[in-house]
């Protein structure tokens, strides 16, 4: 074997390895989230009347392949100051220390630790998610059902995560009274990804 042949084989081998690394990286790349079509919100009861609110700014990162859900990764960072109750006065109030204390804790985060197919559900459609939710400096283990749908070349991820606001000290002093604002809150999300 000549030096030229050896170099050619080495170069071809190197190109093949680079190609494999590139293709692996492409598979492992996070999905592109369409923030214009995605939503994160919260539903709670005030004086027993349901209130729908939303977070206008958040960043979701999802690395998901339905063929390998055990390797999936997901996280969401929510900008607390973007919480919108539909009225400027209320929006300003919930950012205060007694509620979200947005000045000290500007972000809420969720990081998934496991995403497993739901037993008995059609393959690739429903999952059980566990992870850690941090709001106002408090972290709690959480779990919730997740529905995944393929739409065009993208996917949608829908879930509803029930929490207790007092677990995260949301509503201090007189606001601990759950007669005015219920302890139960449901965080709802609809995340749309594109090819």
From TrEMBL:
Q: Which UniProt keywords apply?
A: Signal
Secretion signal, residue range per the UniProt entry: 1-28
Report if keyword Ribosomal protein is assigned. Answer: no
The answer on whether this UniProt entry bears the keyword Protein biosynthesis reads: no
| Residues in Lipid/polyisoprenoid-binding YceI-like domain copies | 30-194
Q: Which domain of life is it from?
A: Bacteria
**SMART domains of this UniProt entry?**
YceI (SM00867)
> What is the protein name for this chain?
Polyisoprenoid-binding protein
Could you read off the lineage of the organism from its UniProt record? Bacteria, Pseudomonadati, Pseudomonadota, Betaproteobacteria, Burkholderiales
